[in-house]
Amino acid sequence: ALALAGCGRLGGETSGRTLTSALRLPAPFTVPLPVPPVARPVRPGHYELAQRAAKVEIIPGTRTEVWGFDGVFPGPTLDLRRGSQAVVRVRNELSVPTSTHLHGGVTPADSDGYPTDLVVAAGRGFRPVGGHSHGGMRIDPDLWKFHPGARDYVYPLDQRAATLWYHDHRMDFTGPQVWRGLAGFLLVRDDEDDALPLPKGDRDIPLMICDRAFDEDGAFRYPSRDPSLLVRAGVDDAYMEGVQGDVVLVNGAPWPELEVAAVRYRLRLLNASNARRYRLELRPGGRFVQVGSDAGLLAAPVEHDAVTIAPAERFDVVVDFSAYPVGTRVTLVNTLDGGTARNVMAFRVARKAADDSAIPARLSRPGRLHRSDAVTTRVFDFRKSGEWAGAWTINGRPFTPGTPLARPRLGTVELWRLASDFHHPVHVHLAHFQVLTRNGKAPAATDGGWKDTVDLRPYEVVEVLVRFEGYRGRYMMHCHNLEHEDMAMMADIDVV
Ligand code: C2O
Ligand code: CU
């Protein structure tokens, strides 16, 4: 087992079977969709977010303690512009250390949110448990950093307009800490995106989709991480598959509904779930026109009847509600699951309205990488290890802070061949990539554009072309199933 001591018992369920008990859940589509507040700068280019516990009403009539940026979940949206640097001061007022990562950000290594580079609430005096050990290994004590009270993260945002998100990244505890609410959007905007006639303003909506389970008192229910339970339950315990809840939240509300006009809307879909994948479809029918992927606009729009979205992926889509008669309830459903995880949210088409938006046939010039651009080929095998007490490993090795699995050169493109034994959404920090092949064939229609996370499915081999741009330093790659990440499916990547 990994460095699990001191994590506390958060309910007794194992995952997959993490169910809400004895709590009256709302009927689907009765709670209005919230839109996260937009963060206001404390002075130009400077933002402050306080991580704190707060009781909020998620299930009507019940209070749930969230650990939120500014006490809200999702955290405030940082709505920023390409090339204008933002300095975000994160103050930790929680009982646990935190590290904040900007997912999809082209960020200097020091601000990337390395898992042992922690902010600790003032006066807490946290020290790592178990003598700096992780998975039975010693971690170089120099790798632990403790910022008392607060620290600044510097985001130059010298990157294309895109839907990014920030979330906790603490060593071994990212799963439980994100589950409790430590996640929010960061939208990068630029002139190119602004100049397009895509839907804007309150017709451009970020949607953070994630599943949760609740205890009878309303608290978020997360499986016990008591290592003895894990060992007894064995490696096939559902915890190993990642934690899934039975209540689907969008922007922090259960199965919400949004009233829309019969016009086009731009929906920035983010799967912020710890482990659940969704296959999103519209009922009674309809299409998503994808205009962007994880790291910005596509070259041209792509239509999908269904969008499969793995943890941490984003799909920037346009849905045209003029296709439905006024009065229609259009539901967003998850056809990968039955039961309570089938419904996601609904849009009620309330009225007709003028629509001056359009989806141009050409969106951007993202550029295309070719196999011949790669200076090196590397293979990364994402697999459960027999050796490390069933830990999840990359190339047979559990996360070993300070010892990189690869040292790519800044300014080059590499071909990475990703192989797996399970669903592993693979995420690379700093560098964006393009999917070249899936199982030796052309990529899926939903693999297009620049990405930072790819949905690697069981026994697949996916080839991606990764471009290292921006900064040198210690970054990482990992599985974005957060329980897999916490169980060591992560590696340092040193950009040299
Ligand atoms: Cu969204 Cu390293 O994470
Ligand atoms: Cu995984």
Describe the model.
The chain has helices spanning 174-179, 191-195, 227-233, 482-486, and strands spanning 46-56, 64-69, 75-81, 86-92, 100-103, 117-120, 133-134, 137-138, 145-148, 150-155, 162-168, 183-189, 204-212, 247-250, 253-254, 257-261, 264-271, 278-283, 288-293, 296-304, 306-309, 314-320, 329-334, 343-351, 374-384, 392-394, 404-406, 413-420, 424-428, 432-438, 453-456, 461-467, 473-479, 490-495. With 496 residues, it is mostly beta strands. It folds into 3 domains: 46-192, Sandwich (Immunoglobulin-like); 204-351, Cupredoxins -  blue copper proteins (Immunoglobulin-like, Sandwich), CATH 2.60.40.420; 371-495, Immunoglobulin-like (Sandwich), CATH 2.60.40.420. Strand 14 and strand 15 form a beta hairpin. The longest helix is centred in the middle third of the chain and has 7 residues, at 227-233. It starts with 45 loop residues before the first strand and ends with a strand. 49% of the residues are buried. Copper (II) ion (CU) binds next to loops.
Bound molecules: CU-O-CU linkage, copper (II) ion
Largest beta sheet: strand ordering? 15-14-13-17-22-19-20
CATH architectural category of the largest domain: Sandwich
Secondary-structure-based class equals mainly beta
Question: How many whole angstroms does the radius of gyration measure?
Answer: 21 Å
Quote the CATH topology of the largest domain. Immunoglobulin-like
Biggest sheet statistics: 7 strands, mixed
Write down the overall geometry: globular
Set out the fold topology:
Layout: E1 46-56, E2 64-69, E3 75-81, E4 86-92, E5 100-103, E6 117-120, E7 133-134, E8 137-138, E9 145-148, E10 150-155, E11 162-168, H1 174-179, E12 183-189, H2 191-195, E13 204-212, H3 227-233, E14 247-250, E15 253-254, E16 257-261, E17 264-271, E18 278-283, E19 288-293, E20 296-304, E21 306-309, E22 314-320, E23 329-334, E24 343-351, E25 374-384, E26 392-394, E27 404-406, E28 413-420, E29 424-428, E30 432-438, E31 453-456, E32 461-467, E33 473-479, H4 482-486, E34 490-495
Parallel strand pairs: 1-4, 3-12, 6-9, 13-17, 16-24, 25-28, 27-34
Antiparallel strand pairs: 1-2, 4-10, 5-11, 7-8, 11-12, 13-14, 14-15, 17-22, 18-21, 18-23, 19-20, 19-22, 23-24, 25-26, 28-32, 29-31, 29-33, 30-32, 33-34
The structure holds CU-O-CU linkage and copper (II) ion (CU).
Residues 392, 424, 479, 481, 484, 489 line the site of copper (II) ion.
